[in-house]
Amino acid sequence: MKKIVVIYESMLVQMRQSFVRPMFKFCLFFNPIISTILLYEMYINSGETNYFAYVVLGSGLMGLWGCICFSSAGDINRERHSGTLAIIYTAPVSFREIVVGKIMGNTILSIFSFVMSLLVAKILFHIEIDIKNPFYFLFSFVATIVVFVIIATIVAFLLMLSRKTELYMNCIEVPLIMLSGFVFPVDLLPKPLQLFSRLIPSTYAVELLRITACGIEDINNFWNKVVLLTGISLLYVLGARLLYRIIDKRVRIKGNLNVV
Amino acid sequence: MDKIIEVRNLRREYIRKKGIRNKETIVAVDGISFEVGRGEIFGLLGQNGAGKTTTIKMLTTLLAPTAGECKVLGFDCFGEEEKIRNKINFIFGGETGVYRRLTARENLRYFSNLYMLNSSKQKERIDEILELVDLKNRADDLAETFSKGMIQRLQIARGLINDPEIIFMDEPTVGLDPVGARMLRNIIIKLKEQGKTVLLTTHYLQEAEELCDKMVIMKDGRIVKSGVPSEIKGGYVTLEDAYIDLVGGQVS
Fold this sequence. Notes:
The structure holds 2 protein chains of 2 kinds.
Chain A: H1 2-19, H2 22-43, H3 51-81, H4 85-89, H5 95-125, H6 134-159, H7 165-179, H8 191-197, H9 201-214, H10 219-254
Helix pairs in contact in A: 1-5, 2-3, 2-5, 3-5, 3-6, 3-7, 3-9, 5-6, 6-9, 6-10, 9-10
Chain B: E1 3-18, E2 22-37, E3 41-46, H1 52-59, E4 67-72, E5 75-76, E6 88-92, H2 104-114, H3 119-132, H4 148-160, E7 166-170, H5 178-193, E8 197-201, H6 205-211, E9 214-219, E10 222-227, H7 229-233, H8 239-247
Parallel strand pairs in B: 3-8, 3-9, 6-7, 7-8
Antiparallel strand pairs in B: 1-2, 1-4, 4-5, 9-10
């Protein structure tokens, strides 16, 4: 019960703090508008007619990931500079729960970038919002959110080790967009890169979103991807737990929690 | 007296990069030993870079010692930190350590949740502490609208939220106006009366003399003198003269 309170309170505090930051507002409101326009222009002569699956989902996912990535990773540095990282780290509750709460707060706010993409696509380009399997789509959407939270948690833990978090989060934002197939299918990537894609759970989450938006043709294929997504996500969760144990010791040996 | 903090041959090194390949080992704390009894106000004095903050960071479980023993309430600060953390708290000087985009009350509410205070006691405790640091009438204002001194008082309130047995204060009066500094000194005295232990670093020697039961003077990571203020003063008239002599300055 205490864990839930900590996650919930951290989430609320994070939402309050993120929402007033200009960068977060940019990621939340303007980034999806620009991405939707650009993706629409890219896809207009591509022969692909399902604009929802590529333009709206693509820009929505980019906005969602951008907000989560820049906020969750950047927040570690913001906490470090405001002197609160050391305080929340040495609080008697687990720092893991605090981080998860913060990422959940950012994620909930970030869902609005999806809404922005939908609105822009509908108003500017009159794109039909036709989701063939709405129930399965909702399921896939929730799975996507969970996967993003897991990945962002791992990233946040890793960034505790360094003070150059801004540099690293810029380095991870675009590769994940490409490797997970946010804006085009991963099958278009070179074969060696596809191997990397298959190791990232968000790849399966995005595929599930597209399958359910376009209409499930093979239900077995859908469930196979759900199983793969679950399995890899569980491995990531186990990895995150192990990573935290290592990082928990490492940051105190290296002394990374303060600015100086 | 019950020893609540035990430090033996404590050493802490940092690795600093020099250029691309070279690394340099900096010894921040070099084999120090001291003990603090329950209910004492203990001072760690020294010049900037003497190792005071590093020592506090090790005692508050933020940093791992490179060598030696560092125990709080009988538990190792590195390895048994979970048994320590809910019984201690720390206040670092300056304007950091609070969320500026939250109100004073929201800050304290969040930190009290992190210290697992019962929700029934939470409101009462927050009001009590806000009163103590004279922020009750600004409790619902955003911390970013506060003056430097008010933020520092909020930080003090945060450091007391869990009613800690031991409070570590690293230059807590830095930047405080005379009224704020006096208020903090009164709080420290009040904490001692309640049986709390305070480990304090400060550059204000008069403050140290007024408050501390015992103190150590550090220089280049080592302890150069320890004892009660009168022992530290020795033959000098003021603690400042003795201090300057010990850290290698010149007494006029």
